[in-house]
Amino acid sequence: MKADNKAARKAARQLTPPRELLADLVLANKILFGLKVVDAFGHISVRHPKDPNYFLMARHLPPGMVTAKDIVLFDMDSTPLTHSDKPQYSERFIHSEIYKLRPDVMSVVHNHAYSLIPFGAAKGARLRPMFHMCGFLGCGVPIFEIRKAGGNTDMLIRTAELGKALAESLGDKNVVLMRGHGATMIGNSIQESVFRSVYSMENASIQMQAHLLSDTGEVEFLNEEESDKSSRGRNVPRSWSLWKHQFSKAR
Ligand SMILES: [Zn+2]
Q1: What pairs with residue 44 in β-bridges?
Q2: What's the CA-to-centroid distance between 77 and ligand 1, angstroms?
Q3: Domain of 138: which CATH number?
Q4: Centre of ligand 1 from the C-alpha of residue 99, in Å
Q5: Which amino acids are annotated catalytic?
Q6: pTM tops 0.85, yes or no
């Protein structure tokens, strides 16, 4: 869908994002790349703080190369209202459809982190919270099966229909695995969606090791109450402050 140019220009003028938010979004791209959550692929978005019907995300670039000048304003059809002459991520519908279905969500990350892939593919496997940094996984991690929504595809979420099916699969959870593809995480801020991306990936590696170490293959996970209690701490701001220190000068 092509945005009406006049309306697009007006929206873009009125929705100049706060400079701090832009800086955090750029930094988030660098953190996700620096910690190997994303490589040349993957993206992070944030809902616009002035109008919930818009979101911000980089144009079609590897996350490690994103600067503030590359941040695009999108509407909820994933139509770019700025940078519309440039290529955009084909999977931007992941973001718009989740924002539409989940008014509580302020930020979305999509990645292809290698350690998460087996948990979306192995029969009977479930990603579950191994330690106190991952209590956010305790409410359950659904697996999105794209064949049910779109038959045999190239696995990418290239349409609003597939994005909607993915958002429905996520439901009210924090993370959804995508069979044969990757994962998508949500948060109430850029900081929280980055935190959940990093620690979902770490949890997957640790869980795999624990299954291998166990005599029977069985593992003890955090229970529901432990997951809930361990999610309430100050893990997110403390992690963000370290990553900001570590990556704010990354080029
Ligand atoms: Zn993808």
Answers
A1: 109
A2: 18
A3: 3.40.225.10
A4: 17
A5: 91
A6: yes
